[in-house]
Amino acid sequence: EDVFMPALSAVPVFRKQLSVFMMLTVDLIHVAGSKTTDAANCSLFCIFQLKPDSVVEAISALPGVITFTVNRKLLVQVCESELPQQEEEFGLNSKLFDTLNRGTSLVEFSSPNIAKKFHAGHLRSTFIGNFIANLKHSLGNRVIRMNYLGDWGMQFGLLGAGFGKFGCQQKLKQNPLQHLFEVYVEVNKEAEHNEEMKLAAKDFFKQLEQHESEAVSLWQQFREITVHEYEHIYKRLGVHFDIYSGESQHQDQAQKVVQQLQTQGLLKTSEKGTGVVDLSPDGDMSSFCTVLRSDGTTLYITRDIAAAIDRKRKYHFDEMIYVTDKSQANHFDQLFQILLSMDHAWADRCRHVPFGLVQGMKTRTGEVVFLEDVLDEARTRMLNNMSQSKTTKEMDDPEDTAEKVGISALIVQDFKGPLQSDYKFDWDRILQTQGDTGVFLQYTHARLSRSGSFICDETWQDLLFSLLLEQTGITILQHLLRYDEVLYQSAQDLQPKHLVNFLLKLSHLIASAHRELPVKGSAPGVAQARLRLFSRAHSVLANGMRILGITPVDRM
Ligand code: ARG
ipTM of this model? Predict the structure, then answer.
């Protein structure tokens, strides 16, 4: 089941046939008595029932193992006709994807909070959301990438009230994220013992809510300067957003949502005087969601309801995907439930992609506060590792390479397991050249980039017949043919692990091929065939890396 997805295959001739054999085998084992420990007997029993044909050339059995040998010539032909020539054509053209709905996907990700820390969770959201957006795009969807900033709330009351005392315009321009965070920390400390400061903060936030121009313009300055700074950092990551939205954009609409809920008879008043929506199946308030504070102000969820409705109206998405850590799973459940109960049937096509915590992401100087710290650290460490190698000295821009490789290390580490899992962060482990790391993917890519190009005038098929003799080459071809399946699988559950593990496996296969299938010193035909094989592998690897959000390097 893991290997073959018959009905969806781009290479039906193999997968259908093989899976029919597989299923038959399983059935037969079942009939023969799966409880018997005599596996050899089962196998033999199967063998008599299965007849080789033009796809499966031979079937043989050892105790407990049945081997199906595929027709290698056919495999090569299929490779030639099915694998796209150009890197850009992957995914899009595959027949496998005719069954997918290609519409507009709105992907909301990263979404940091202004003046607060950019934590590892935001970094994960950035990587994962970017991957999902890339994947959807490569499968032919229109994709809208949205960043929903935490740009509203009491932190702006505090910042606004305290900026006069602790802030400095010059520092704000020089190092905005850092400075806003410092001011925020200072004001918070002050407000702990200073009632006046607390009141001033409340007052400032009220002014904001009432759109008073002075307060709004200071808020706007904080926001603009932050977005500008983030854009610069996202660029380093190779990530872009079509829209910078945020909680602030929906606070008026949030009040309308409350009215709407009231009109629809969905709003109840709790004993504490807050506005709530009953979410219990039996209508007994055993579970509910607060959408309005007793002082009449709205909450995070109220703004999310408003934001979702607004996005549907503006962008007509066919699906919307939210990427945040798993602690917000309940929030999104409630959000979708409320939208549905308001008769927004499209909420069915909204999806939350939750992920686990990262522990111990630290830099040499201590705790990670800003995204830039992580990127700088990755680059410095990578540069340090690379400085031992000869090729580094020949590079035009080793810093740039170190940056790209460092980021790929972060991404692969993050994507290897199920997204829901927590993981421990370890710089040394993720930066290893050997083993399942992003550095290894980059290394393989760089090596393939330098393997030289083949001459096109001989046909691929003729060339490949000389490859047929080698199992290594066949294994790589078989692996490459699974690429579309892997994209499909990732598109189904939005988990990058399928693609990452596919590319890591490919890289391991290529490492063996580099040892076992030398180009230099081989007869011209054989050399050409091998180059062609490497070139195919190169484009699949590059394409897959890009979808993951990695920029492949040609030298390292
Ligand atoms: N800013 C939020 C946080 O840092 C994440 C926003 C997630 N998106 C949403 N539509 N609620 O936790």
Answer: 0.99
